[in-house]
Amino acid sequence: MGRVNGKIALVTGAGSGIGRGAALALAAEGATVVATDVDVAGNDETVALITKAGGKAVGMVHDVTSETRWAEVVAEIKASQKGLHILVNNAGIGIAADIFTMEFKDWQRQMSINVDGVFFGVKHGIPLMAASGGGSVINISSVAGLKGAAGLSGYCASKGAVRLFTKAVAMECAQANMNVRVNSVHPGIIDTAIWNKIPQNGMGSLKLPTMQDGANAIDANVLGAGSPLGYAGLPSDIAAGIVFLASEESRYMTGTELVIDGGLMAS
Question: Which domains, ranges and CATH numbers included, belong to the chain?
Answer without folding.
Answer: 8-191+234-258 (3.40.50.720)
